């Protein structure tokens, strides 16, 4: 009977989570599809403390038909920056295997820095310090410019760190259950 209650609770929790995510997703899509100019004018008329003025990018004409999504896209989209174009031209001339090697060394460098920090300034065990260093190194590496343009390598390193932490958690959980 206890197992049925746990399964029922898990199913109810999952259905509730999916419903909440669906409501937020639908509301977010509805807000993004609103006409920008009418919405912002309405917020100004009602003296709302937060208006959409901060979203308006310089040099963009806002007509009646433009939506909040389009204005947000123009605001967040930064057309080809000179530094990014320069780096992409340089990295394209380097062979792929060397870029992958440099990327891996760069990631392991950050991991080593965190490992040294954790081992010197904390009382962590080596495996715990190493696994958390993998995660912190991947997190720092995710936000740093690197040799491979795009986020695929960053996601691989984050996935690797999370997989190792999950494996560690699973083995610890299994050994704790085995000793009980």
Walk me through the structure.
The chain has 180 residues and is mostly helical. It is 74% helix and 0% strand. The chain contains seven helices and no strands. The radius of gyration is 24 Å and the shape is flat.
What is the count of β-strands?
A: 0
Mean residue pLDDT: 85
**Order of helix and strand elements from N to C terminus:** HHHHHHH
Alpha-beta content class: mainly alpha
Distance between the termini: 22 Å
Low-confidence stretches: none
Which helices and strands appear, and what pairs or packs with what?
Layout: H1 2-32, H2 36-45, H3 68-76, H4 82-93, H5 96-121, H6 126-143, H7 152-179
Helix pairs in contact: 5-6, 6-7
Short structural description:
The chain contains seven helices and no strands. It has 180 residues and is mainly alpha-helical. Helix 5 crosses helix 6 and helix 6 runs antiparallel to helix 7.
Key terms for this structure?
74% helix, mainly alpha, 7 helices, 180 residues
């Amino acid at each position: 009977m206890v197992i049925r209650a746990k399964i029922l609770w898990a199913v109810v929790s999952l259905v509730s989570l999916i419903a909440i995510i669906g409501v937020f997703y639908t509301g977010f899509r509805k807000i993004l599809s609103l006409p920008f100019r009418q919405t912002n004018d309405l917020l100004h008329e009602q003296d709302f403390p937060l208006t959409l003025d901060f979203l308006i990018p310089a040099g963009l004409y806002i007509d009646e038909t433009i939506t909040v999504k389009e204005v947000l896209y123009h605001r967040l989209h930064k057309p080809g920056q000179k530094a990014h174009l320069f780096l992409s031209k340089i990295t394209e001339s380097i062979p792929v295997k060397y870029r992958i090697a440099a990327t891996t060394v760069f990631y392991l460098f950050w991991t080593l820095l965190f490992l040294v920090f954790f081992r010197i300034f904390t009382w962590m065990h080596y495996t715990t310090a190493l696994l958390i260093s993998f995660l912190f190194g991947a997190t720092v590496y995710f936000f740093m410019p690197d040799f491979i343009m795009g986020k695929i390598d960053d996601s691989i390193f984050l996935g690797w760190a999370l997989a190792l932490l999950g494996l560690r958690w699973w083995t610890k959980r299994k050994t704790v259950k085995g000793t009980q």
